[in-house]
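During the first year of the project, the team set up a workflow for recording each protein of interest as an amino acid sequence followed immediately by a discrete structure-token representation. This format lets reviewers and collaborators read both layers of information side by side without switching files. As required by the reporting guidelines, we include two representative entries from the current panel. The first entry is reproduced here exactly as it appears in our internal archive.
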Amino acid sequence: MNNLIDIADRFKPQGKVIDIQEFGHGNINSTFLVTLDSLEEKHFILQRINTQVFRQPKLVMQNMSIFTLHVGDKLKALSSAYRLQHTPPNRRWEVPRVLLTQNAQNHFIDAEGSFWRAISFIEAAESFDIIKDSNHAREVGYALGMFHNLISDLPTEKLADTLPGFHITPRYLQQYNEVLPKSSVSQSAEVKYCLQFVSDRSSWAHVLENAQAQGQLHLRPIHGDPKINNVMIDTTTGHAISIIDLDTVKPGLVHYDIGDCLRSSCNFLGEETDQWDMVRFDTDICQSVLQGYLSVAREFLTISDYEYMYDAIRLIAFELGLRFFTDYLAGNVYFKIKYPEHNLNRAIVQFKLTESIESQETAIRAIIQEMR
């Protein structure tokens, strides 16, 4: 605890650190909520970046700085436009700020070589692991649409690719094929199910990358991890006010974000359930999320973007299951786990979700067609 306080003090907090607690449910970084005795900002987020995953953490911070500056300028311009129209903006939207150290650095490296950063805390807001209702679903969609809208004109060449291969499903398939022959896990019924599931879909896993190679889809700035618990909801209004966890902001296909958002939103049982046969993709929630998303994102989407939305929804659920299963086969080296079969169970949840998506293809495509 004393070590954490010393590190938190490096970031010039406006007040004395009185408490530090683990925060959130992230699978990658270690996150802490710092409480201060200040009358102004009472909290901030302290994070130890997992440098086994983010091997160039300085580039992560560079991207975050470029992103926050761009979005800050856009929000100011929008605010000025509202004032010119004599109508106040009716939505609160916040961007987490990077806090600097006493020597004006955006990170701190401790004696053990750990990479730390501090980010402002969004007060009077909360996030959820599962969708509460259709209004919540629309707000989650709105949040992703607002995020994409604000960065749609940010040139991708300004952003570093901090996670090469992230959301490139064929690369995950290649990793799987490299790990599989070396794995010594027992051939349980669950493992056999996963092996067959991946085998049956291997040839289809290139669908989005092929579309990009053919010029039908194009790189844009993306969030990279817009799952439901990264969307902050105002505790008073119920409005979405921010998307947090900006480590994965990078060039990519907006389909990765759309697919990931719907994957996490439309499964009421969440990622950690052991009720595999009860996992399903809820099309009503899918419709609400897309309504919220397209209310602010429609203007920059193309005909081809709509045509590949279903594939994105199906693919990203499959992709995450593939990543969990590969990590299980490799000995659980990437995702945090609570027990040895944790990643295997997570993989089965995503594969069952993929099956549910596949069984409702006609209905999902009809929803997308209605929204165009």
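The second entry, processed by the same pipeline in the following quarter, appears below.
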Amino acid sequence: MASLSDVVDIPSNLNVGLTACPASHLLQKFGSPGSLTPKCSPFTGPSKNLIRTDSVGPFRVTGMGFAIDSLSDVFDQVNSFHPEVYAAIHTAGMLCVRANKASTSAYSNHSWGCAIDLYFGSDVVPFGAPKTQLGFLYIYEFFRQAGWYWGAGFSGKKDAMHFELSREAIDSVAIAPSPGAELVAAADYARQMGYDDVEEPA
């Protein structure tokens, strides 16, 4: 009898309509997440107010709030159609400020809590292996419909346990301006600083 953790071939035609989101795009939108380290380090970036910890159904995660909300919706769908698959899903982590496994000079998308690693059973398909686990065949389309790009479709080394919010999904996120001081009229600022007392050169 087949197990959800069985290793199978990766399907074709993945991520239709979606684009993988480069870390440079997340860096531009959300700012630096913290130190670029080989292993997880604390999130210290300017978007810290967007990070939260919450349940997405089968487990709790820490990540960007909008990503957590989306995951919760995805797992609700999985539970409705495939409750046995939902009950068997595990996560290896979501938020992790670290370098990309494929390029140590770039951040992983996990650094902003916009990606999640999933698996079935007690083992994972190694990074780079062109295979996946049977359980993913039941869920990847729910992720795609919600704007999550499956790493099994990467053009380079495959990452079959990895789902990340696509560039399209990230671009649709509206970010409220960071709280700060109100704007001050330039003339008032110059007066407060005493610049209006400086004599203009002849």
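For the second entry, the following points were noted during internal review. The radius of gyration is 22 Å. The chain has six helices and eight strands. Both points are flagged for discussion at the upcoming steering committee meeting.
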